[in-house]
Inverse folding.
């Protein structure tokens, strides 16, 4: 998933990488998948767009 196959860095990937060091790779992948599903559900509910980083596309 995002920890292994996506080369672009994001806050979610950074969080998952830190978590993998603490609890192991498999548990971290499940945690990242859950976090992404919650984000996607919220995006669909609110009809918002996904940004890779906080600075990208946000008004100053």
């Amino acid at each position: 998933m995002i920890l292994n196959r996506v080369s672009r860095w994001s806050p979610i990937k950074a969080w998952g990488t830190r978590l993998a060091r603490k609890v192991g790779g498999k548990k971290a992948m499940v945690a990242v998948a859950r976090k992404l599903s919650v984000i996607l559900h919220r995006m669909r509910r609110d009809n918002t767009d996904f940004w890779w980083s906080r600075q990208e596309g946000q008004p100053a």
Observations:
- The CA atoms of residues 3 and 13 lie 6 Å apart.
- The radius of gyration is 13 Å.
